[in-house]
UniProtKB/TrEMBL annotation:
It comes from the Eukaryota. This is Retrotransposon Copia-like N-terminal domain-containing protein.
């Protein structure tokens, strides 16, 4: 089954990280186990020991199949919704969780830093004597 991703703007960087993350998280939650794989709630089952019984082998096989299906769906969704420049960050990632964590480590931190800078500018923002009120309000709106 081909995954359809319509109306999702591709992740370009910090400028659209928040909206991209919201949209992709919503889509991942609509795919059985995909979001859980990304955040590590569902992990790849550990290999069985040689002496494992038939029931354990059957359970392992079912769990591995479910994890693999969710991981492939999540990986496909992530790859289809990012720009090629961002994709370069993920070439070493083997699982959807690795991709998700890599994107978070790069863009979530940058977003926090940008928010901190804006917050700092906001706290020191004041009207300059040479600006009239219209210009002052325009500068304030650009800040926020």
């Amino acid at each position: 089954m081909e995954l359809q991703v319509h109306g999702i703007e591709k992740l370009r960087g910090t400028e659209n990280w928040i909206l991209w993350k919201f949209a992709v998280k919503s889509l991942l939650r609509g795919i059985d186990g995909a979001y859980e794989v990304c955040i590590g709630e569902i992990v790849k089952p550990a290999p069985l020991r040689e002496e494992a019984g038939d029931a354990d082998r059957a359970e392992y096989k079912a769990n591995l199949k479910a994890w693999d299906k969710a991981d492939r769906a999540a990986s496909q969704l992530i790859v289809k919704t990012i720009d090629s420049k961002v994709l370069a960050l993920l070439v070493a990632c083997e699982t959807a969780q690795e991709m998700w964590l890599k994107l978070h480590s790069v863009y979530q931190q940058q977003t926090k830093q940008a928010a901190h800078i804006v917050q700092s500018e906001f706290f020191v923002f004041k009207k300059k004597p040479v600006d009239d009120m219209v210009h002052h309000i325009a500068k304030f709106e650009q800040l926020i």
